[in-house]
Write a structure and sequence with these properties.
The protein is an alpha+beta fold. It has helices at 3-22, 29-46, 49-65, 69-85, 89-105, 109-121, 129-145, 149-166, 169-185, 189-206, 212-224, 228-244, 252-266, 270-287, 290-306, 310-329, 346-359, 370-383, 397-403, 406-427, 450-466, 470-473, 495-511; strands at 387-394, 432-437, 440-446, 480-486, 517-521, 524-529. It starts with a helix and ends in an 8-residue tail after the last strand.
């Protein structure tokens, strides 16, 4: 046998070993990481670059599942770049699936959805049956995480049928577990129970032992049904199996401990609950699990209240509320995205466009979000010409939340968003409104200089102020303060400079009495209020 034949056989063996790792449903993360490192060394010796990067992707996946999310994220860029340069759609598809999980751990639902879409778009005839099922299942998960339940259910149904057709019961059980939890998270406990029942039937039919993640899902549903003692037993077993079985997923144990603490709180076993909640918090901090940590803060407030510690409960609730806003209002910088492969049918391409659009929308108001702003505004700045931006902030919004409810606050935000969008359409058809987070919005007016924009924006301010809020807010007024900035007046032609100037003017508007528009004119750096002066720019 020639050296070339030996080399080819060795490459085939390593490729099969990597496929076995890639297509597993559950891993011993430490052992698998060691195996992947060994395969990389052998691939380097062979000079097979594709095998090297596949092995590195397996390592990134295991690091992510061990909780080393930052290390996994650092690896993923180079793997993505190699796969893009070599138009390797299978490595790209697997890369985006790992990337989606990284963003899920970081609490970034929009980026998780973005990468999940790409992970399915890139599937082709070379994709394994495991990929065909699991990539679609993870897209359904991402849709549910983003709040698009109808689309998620459609994807889950398609995936369930595909898993049955391909004879993959282990993946079917994993998909049903995720489906049940997603329904629970959406507040659909009846649907969750039905899916969990089908999950247990699959396990019984095929002789599978329920893994810890499945037990966590069942425990969560038991809590919703008021079966707290059963839930505690289920979650204790989940934690035991997690340790005994060497299951590793970055957020898994933190989730189990949090669910266990909830069950114990309902049982009034507050000391046991506190111990488990503290363990969950420690894991969240160590592993950077922002989404889980927010829920830990929420549960801590509930636990204080259950012990009658109402001052402590209120203090922690404020921490929870702040963390919740920070998590859901900040969108990370958009990074390099792969667009080489599309779904093979026109319908699939249309779905992909819908999912991309969803990733750039604020789920509460339907407005554009910070991600869209960060993608669009730099191009408008670079194009030059007249451009005005305005930061719009609701006045005394906290009072509405505190005196009425957060539900009423959300309704106010939705109505204000509609007013801003309607008014802007008449003022600047090419412009857009984005929700920056909380009660803060940004209006972008291309082709409009500051004097004209300021005049128009005062009409926007009046539209909000004069709207009939009485029935919704029970007499509490709803007004906005607006800080305006123009590109021609900005110290530098950058997004940061433009937004900073608008933010300074908003600050002036707030301290000048609120319910007003403040802009800085081109030849007069002093802050001026349009509301107080008809000649203001």
């Amino acid at each position: 046998m020639s050296w070339m034949d030996v080399r080819k056989q060795e490459a085939t063996r390593l490729s099969a070993a990597l496929t076995e790792i890639e297509d597993q449903y559950l891993w011993d993360a430490d052992a698998t990481l060691t195996t992947a490192v060994a395969i990389e060394e052998q691939a380097l010796a062979l000079g097979d670059e594709r095998l090297v990067f596949r092995a590195r992707l397996c390592q990134a996946n295991m690091e992510m599942r061990k909780g080393e999310v930052a290390a996994a994220a650092r690896r993923i860029w180079k793997i993505h770049q190699w796969a893009t340069d070599h138009t390797d759609t299978i490595v790209l598809a697997r890369t985006h699936l790992v990337w989606a999980n990284i963003h899920r751990h970081l609490g970034d639902a929009a980026q998780c959805l973005e990468h999940s879409v790409l992970a399915v778009e890139l599937l082709d005839e070379q994709a394994t049956p495991h990929m065909q099922v699991w990539h679609r299942a993870k897209l359904a998960d991402a849709l549910g995480l983003a709040g698009s339940m109808d689309a998620a259910r459609q994807r889950y149904q398609q995936t369930e049928e595909l898993a049955v057709d391909l004879g993959l019961p282990r993946l079917l059980m994993g998909m049903l577990n995720n489906y049940a939890y997603t329904e629970h998270a959406a507040g659909e406990n009846g649907r969750a129970q039905e899916v969990a029942r089908r999950l247990q039937q699959v396990a019984e039919r095929h002789g599978f032992t329920l893994d810890p993640a499945v037990l966590d899902t069942i425990g969560v549903i038991e809590i919703e049904n008021g079966n707290y003692l059963a839930a505690e037993r289920t979650l204790r077993e989940a934690v035991r199996r997690h340790h005994d079985g060497n299951y590793e997923d970055a957020d898994a144990l933190a989730e189990y401990m949090l669910t266990l603490a909830r069950a114990q709180r309902f049982l009034r076993a507050t000391d046991r609950a506190q111990v488990n909640l503290d363990m969950s918090r420690t894991l969240c901090v160590e592993r950077g699990l922002g989404d889980v940590l927010v829920r830990v803060h929420q549960e801590q407030a509930e636990l204080h209240a259950a012990r009658g510690e109402f001052a402590e409960a209120f203090a922690v609730h404020k921490i929870f509320f702040s963390a919740h806003n920070a998590l859901h209002s900040s969108q990370r910088e958009a990074q390099a995205r792969t667009r080489q492969a599309m779904f093979e049918t026109t319908e699939a391409r249309q779905e992909a466009e819908r999912f991309r659009e969803q990733a750039r929308r604020d789920p509460l108001t339907g407005l554009r979000n910070r991600r869209y702003l960060d993608e669009e505004l730099p191009g408008l700045i670079e194009a030059g010409g007249p451009l005005t931006v305005a930061i719009v902030d609701l006045d005394h919004f906290k009072r509405i939340n505190d005196q009425l409810s957060h539900d009423v606050g959300d309704q106010v935000l939705v109505l204000v968003a509609k007013l801003l969008e309607t008014e802007l359409a008449a003022v600047s058809p090419d412009g857009f409104v984005a929700r920056m987070g909380g009660e803060e919005f940004l209006m972008v007016l291309p082709g409009t200089d500051v004097p004209e924009a300021t005049n128009r924006l005062d009409g926007v301010r009046e539209a909000v102020s004069y709207y009939d809020w009485a029935e919704l807010t029970r007499g509490l007024p709803v007004t906005v303060s607006i800080g305006v900035a123009g590109l021609r007046d900005a110290p530098a032609a950058t997004q940061a400079s433009l937004l900073s100037m608008a933010d300074r003017n908003l600050y002036v508007a707030k301290h000048a009495g609120r319910d007003r528009v403040i802009s800085t004119g081109p030849r007069d750096a002093r802050h001026r209020s349009y509301r107080d002066s008809a000649s203001a720019a």
